[in-house]
Design brief:
This protein is α/β, with parallel strands linked by helices and 240 residues long. Helices cover 45% and strands 11% of the residues.
C-alpha cells in the first residue's frame, strides 16, 4: 500500500520514464520508422534495435560528452547499417539523411515528454530529495544538462559508471544509500515492471509504475503500489 506520509525521498528512472512518458524507447523509434516510411516490418526493426543496443552495451561508442541527439544518431546508424548488411534495406530504399532524420524525430519526441515532466520534477524537488537510478551509457550528465534537468537530482546512479545494471536490486540499494533514508520511506518511479518495480519492491521501497507500452506484452498479474499511465498523474499522487 502506498503511504505518502512516509515518503522522504524519490528515486527516478530516466530513460522510458522521464524522456518518453512511459513508452519503451523501441516503440518510440518504431513510430519514427513508420513516420518516415522505412520499408521494414516491426519484427525486423526489433532485431535491428537489439543489435544496436548490444553493440552500444559492449563497446564504448557513447562518450561522456554525447548528448541524447548524438546518442540517437549513433543508434540510428547502427540500426540502418544492420538492416542494409542483412538485406532488409536496399541502398535505393533509403537516403543518406535517414539516420539523422530518425534521430531528429525521436529527439523531438523526447523534448516534448521532458517539457511536460520538468515542471512536475521542479515541484517535487521543493519537497523531496530526488536521485536518478538509470541503466545508461556513461553520458547521462550531458543528456540531463542538454534538457535542462541537471539541477533537479542530488545524485545519479548510472549503470555504466557503477558497474551494476537493472534489474539487479543492488543498483537501487545504491540509490537508497544516496538518499540516506530507510527503503520504506523511499518511492521508486519507473516505467519497466521487471527492471524498476520488481527490484525496488524486493528491497522494500514503495513503487509508482508509469505503465505504457513495454518491450514485451504484460502477463496481466503485474502490480505496484501506484500505477499511472501518464507522467502528469504524479501530480495527483503527491498532491502537488
Amino acid at each position: 500500500m502506498f503511504n505518502l506520509d512516509k515518503v522522504k525521498g524519490i528515486l527516478f528512472d530516466y530513460g522510458g520514464t522521464i524522456d518518453s512518458n512511459g513508452m519503451h524507447w523501441a516503440e518510440v523509434i518504431w513510430m519514427a520508422y513508420e513516420a518516415l516510411k522505412v520499408p521494414v516490418s516491426k519484427a525486423v526493426f526489433r532485431d535491428a534495435y537489439v543489435h544496436g543496443e548490444r553493440t552500444l552495451g559492449k563497446n564504448p561508442i557513447v562518450k561522456p560528452h554525447h548528448t541524447f541527439l548524438d546518442m540517437l544518431r549513433l543508434k540510428s546508424d547502427l540500426q540502418i547499417q544492420w538492416l542494409k548488411a542483412n538485406g532488409h534495406l536496399s541502398a535505393e530504399a533509403i537516403t543518406p539523411e535517414l539516420p539523422e532524420q530518425l534521430a531528429d524525430w525521436c529527439y523531438e519526441y523526447a523534448r516534448r515528454a521532458i517539457d511536460s515532466a520538468r515542471p512536475i520534477l521542479e515541484q517535487l524537488v521543493e519537497r523531496y530529495p530526488l536521485v536518478l537510478v538509470s541503466n545508461f551509457y556513461g553520458n547521462i550528465e550531458s543528456v540531463l544538462k542538454d534538457f535542462g534537468l541537471d539541477h533537479l537530482f542530488g545524485a545519479i546512479v548510472e549503470s555504466a559508471v557503477v558497474g551494476i545494471r537493472k534489474p539487479d536490486p543492488a543498483i537501487f540499494r545504491l540509490g537508497v544509500d544516496k538518499l540516506g533514508f530507510p527503503a520504506d520511506e523511499i518511492v521508486v518511479v519507473g516505467d519497466s515492471y521487471d527492471k524498476d518495480i520488481v527490484p525496488a519492491t524486493r528491497i522494500g521501497c514503495q513503487t509508482i509504475w508509469l505503465k505504457s507500452i513495454g518491450w514485451s506484452a504484460y502477463k496481466g498479474n503485474e502490480t505496484a503500489d501506484i500505477i499511472v499511465s501518464d507522467f502528469t498523474e504524479i501530480k495527483q499522487v503527491f498532491a502537488l
